[in-house]
Amino acid sequence: MSRIFVIGDIHGCYDELMTLTQKVNLQEEDWLISVGDILDRGGKSKEVYEYFRNRPNSKVLIGNHERKHINNVLSYAQEIVKLQFGEVYTELLAWLSKQDYYFETPETIIVHAAFEHDQPLQQQREDVLSGSTSGEKYLEKKYTETPRWKDHYRGEKTIIYGHHVVGDTPEKHGNTIGIDTAACHGGYLTAIELPGFHIHQVKAARDYWKEEQVNWQVPVLKAKDWENMTFDMVRKQLNKLAYIEVPEVRAFLSGVEKEMMELQGMYTKIIEGIVAFVERLGEERFLEEANKYSFKAFLFKSRANNLKVEDLEKSLNTMGKVKALVREIME
């Protein structure tokens, strides 16, 4: 008889996942069900993904972290994973989008985060099941007096969920069991064996997320599209990251700020270059020639002696735009 193992939030803890499957002597005919959040925070999200994708009798539910990738709502943890996956990131997204939000067995309902007690399984909201921000806000409004959904659940089937860290051991509350035991933070990776609800755990080797946050700061910053951010957005990013004291990070951010200031300081010289450009076009063929250029509005304003620094500041509001115009003028 095949067994079913429901495993808590893995968050890239591949080594612990392998240790846990060895500990329970996982067989090919056994089912392995992830409650979701197989990605982010730990250092081996790609390995976890490949394992579940290639293993028969395996299922990954969509958690809030999978949903962030699917919806392109990328914070730091997701930006790291996007870099780690490289060219196969689009393949990951396609695979994630095909996964389900719940899994049902004869004795359990398995979800990532939460469950509305008064709604049939098939009519549950995806943002509630996955623990997305919108779903959690919805539950806060719905359960105002007793905010926890599990206080209201009275169903016959046990709900197994993750998402909310419950401590070092699973939390049984009514007919629900929470199994996120903070593997990526140095806690435990937990699995429940069905039938029988037997608990299996392995201790994480260390706090992986703490390490990842430091190790990926510079690569993630370098991958940001600084060239096409508005100068206001660049300044906001620099202010937001001002607290970081890591020398490599400070050096990179200082370089970004220096380049931005240098480019913004070029407006007067750019106007001089445009004036010279207009002179080279000449009066006879100005209309015909000026319309060929992307910066023709500046050319016409310059010809009318009406081009001001404010005009450039309004239009050339990214580093990429300033560089592109300088290249065109110099050609």
From TrEMBL:
GO terms for molecular function: phosphatase activity. Coiled coil: none annotated. GO terms for cellular component: cytoplasm. It comes from the Bacteria. InterPro entries: Ap4A_hydrolase, Calcineurin-like_PHP, Metallo-depent_PP-like. It holds the Pfam family Metallophos. PANTHER family: METALLOPHOSPHOESTERASE (PTHR42850), ZINC-DEPENDENT ENDOPOLYPHOSPHATASE (PTHR42850:SF4). This is Metallophosphoesterase. It comes from Chitinophaga tropicalis. The lineage of its organism: Bacteria, Pseudomonadati, Bacteroidota, Chitinophagia, Chitinophagales.
